[in-house]
Design brief:
Helices cover about 60% and strands about 5% of the residues. The chain has about 150 residues and is mostly helical. It has one domain (about 5-130): Serine Threonine Protein Phosphatase 5, Tetratricopeptide repeat. It has a two-stranded antiparallel ribbon. The N and C termini lie far apart (about 55 Å). Belongs to the PPR family. P subfamily. This is Pentatricopeptide repeat-containing protein. It comes from Coptis chinensis. InterPro entries: PPR-containing_protein, PPR_rpt, TPR-like_helical_dom_sf.
Length: about 150
Amino acid sequence: MTLGSSLNLCKRMREAGCLPNTQSCMFLIRLCKKQEKVQMALVLWKDMVEKGFVSYIWVSDVLFDLLFYLGKFEEAKNCFLQMVEKGHKPSNVSFRRIKVLMELANRHETLKILSKKMGIFWPIVQECGKTEREAPWPTFELRLCLHC
């Protein structure tokens, strides 16, 4: 199946009020990567976000892979922020990759914004019955309390 015919099928599904399932979205984005069609992948992502698609994590990993591969850091940042705004935590793998690539691209301000947003999902640490956050602006590092 070619990218064009796959996207036409996806378009017909959208017109009928359906979204492709998680596996189909991942397949479509991988096809977009092979043909370097970032805009098509971002249109699919936009539809997912607007229609309330719930399986963001797997699809976002594939999308981030495409965006990083093509050096589309701003688009990756925007997709990351959309996920967080919808209450979905990006995978740790994606966050580590975006963190390293933003550092390599000297995009330190963007990295601070993304780290702060990722802090929303930072677990509240319980130490011997006392609940508190690790730091005022949590970093994305895991520390365990061995006393609980």
